[in-house]
Amino acid sequence: MTKSNIFHELKDYALISVGVILYAMGVTVFMLPYSLTTGGVAGVASIIYYATGIEVQVTYVIVNIILLIIAIKELGIRFCFKTIYAVFFMTFVLWLFQRIIEIPDPNQTGAMMLPKFIGEESFMACVLGAILCGSGVALCFENNGSTGGTDIIAAIVNKHRNMSLGSVIMSCDVVIISSCYFIFHDWFRVIYGFVMLFICSTTIDYWMRRRQQSVQFMIFSRNPNAIADAIIETHHGVTILDGEGWYTHTDRKVIVSIIRRRDQALMQRIIKRIDPYAFVSMTDASGVWGESFDKFKVRENREKDKKNTILVCVTNNTTKIDTAQQVLGDYYDVRSLLQVGCDTRKEFYSVILGQEPRKRVSFIKKFFGFDAFYMAKDGTVTLVQGNYDQAEYDITEHESLKALREYLEQSKKKKK
Fold this sequence. Notes:
By secondary structure, this protein is α+β, with helices and mostly antiparallel strands. The protein contains 15 helices and eleven strands. The chain has helices at residues 3-31, 40-52, 56-75, 77-101, 122-142, 150-160, 165-178, 181-184, 187-212, 224-233, 264-274, 318-328, 347-352, 357-368, 401-415; strands at residues 103-104, 112-113, 214-220, 239-245, 250-260, 279-285, 309-313, 332-335, 371-375, 381-385, 394-398. The strands form three sheets. A five-stranded mixed sheet has the order 8-7-9-10-11, sandwiched between helices. Strands 4-5-3-6 form a four-stranded antiparallel sheet, covered by helices on one side. Helix 3 runs antiparallel to helix 4 (77-101), helix 6 (150-160) runs antiparallel to helix 7 (165-178) and helix 7 (165-178) packs antiparallel against helix 9. The longest helix is centred in the N-terminal third of the chain and has 29 residues, at 3-31. The radius of gyration is 28 Å and the shape is globular. The two termini are 32 Å apart.
């Protein structure tokens, strides 16, 4: 592991620690003293605390251990390492904060209680506690971690579906908050719980959207090539469109680039350095899917799209395409180069695709994203697979199309 990677890992753990402290502060300072209930495992733990007196950190750690076992399979060990750290650190911080702020109970000799720092203002405690809890959860998520509980469930759902983290957490927590009525028999506490849940979820979504928000730059410059090359060097994508200045009727090049909002200042510095007189338009991009951005998270319509796995056959020969489709079966949608936008009549594409099989299939994977295979004259098949964002792909050689099908079937069974 390089020094840079070590620094980023330490930074993640440091910021996760800050998020845990904010969350624990919201629970111990504003929630427990006012007998408020929020969602998640903290809400479950607080209800048990009000009913039995078992301290929140005990229930919190037991429930989270169960959820972490599920999360390791779905979210990967890297996410879970940081979540495990956050869960046990949260357990310690919840215990520590209670020991720090507790005071003797004037109504019961030898007993301790948590003080109400803002008097009897239960609603203000509800608002402040929810903001602290929401900010803490968002800070953990931004740094590849989680505070556990329904955060884990939300992260799993967000991985597979286009649902915001805050919405998932809110859906999971409705039952938890409603159950506090059976402890207090007070609908006002239930209402306060839903207010806390709404503010907490809104706070999470606010911080997550702010981090992931993208912007689109349209740059009108007399030196478009230099600006485009400089943007490419920062590992951002660029498209140059043909335009015409209608007043002068002269040709213009329009540079279009979509970047994360956090890189906005970098883009402005590039433009100013190369062409301070460029005309620039920047607009918010509320949804961006594709390379280096978000991935499509929609459920496939299996009735309309039974062929749900696309394979590109590196050819435009219809006979080869039909043969490959028949051998591989209906589970695969075999497409030609033209069907994925690779026009071999253009010199750039024809030069690359004239090279040896491994380079051909790697080119299709890198620039078009699809898994691809090439059939040589002797019948052997070269297959490339892998995630679109990876630097290197898995390339395998097969004796025939039938051998390729057997390999794909075995791979499909292993994934299940």
